[in-house]
Amino acid sequence: MTVITELEGTFNFRDLGGLPTTSGEPTAYGVLYRSDALHALTPAGDAELAASDIGVIVDFRTPTERDVSPDRMPRARRIRDVHLPLLEGAMSHIVKEALEARALGDHTAFGRAADKAMANLPTLADMYVQMLEHGAAPFAEVARLVAQPGDEPAVLIHCTAGKDRTGVCAALLLDAAGVTREAIVADYVATEQHLSGQWLDAMTAMVERFGVAVTPELAEIMGGSPASAIESALAWVDGQGGAAAYLQSGGLTDSELAAFRARLAG
To answer: Which residues is 56 bridged to in the sheet?
Structure first.
């Protein structure tokens, strides 16, 4: 197997290795990857994934999101698909309500769902805290998968954009592994640049086709990753005793935490 630096057909893929930790040792390469959804993998991307060291893919999307855009898995070898759905993600509420109503023949559903969501649009920071309030168990399960690789040496986490649910999970795991806050925030902030251009243009066009105006606030929800959002999320985690204590509140044991740190912190 080989460590990969890109996955053709994705926009927000990267290895979380090489990040500085407070101990002075960088995080290990080929252990934990993050990405946007894998539904648009090209044949080259399929081959890259098949040849990689990724043995587990964790998908935070809801069942509706997965049905609309199922991941493309390589045919050359089996990769374990772990589904840990989290509702709080960019557009997930709107998409869920719209698709369910449209299935019943209501073709104006997206616009109505969008209007309802826009009237109660949360900030990214608020959305992340809501996610953290009930996400300890799924996030702890990701740490457990990293800690106990077996024959599946690397874990890839993703949602739709690889920004919100994936971004919060990545920040938590990196913090628990001792990565410096500066590096955690920088990794999160990088997502906005990765999504700008083709990905965000396509998302904007989709929303506008349903008659929804993309305001600056909505544009940030869809493709933004300001430092303040993840800093607020991490401040909330600090208030719970820190990332390690938070993951343990979700069921991660002392031995699993130690094993996770040993693998990711190098």
So the answer is: 80, 155
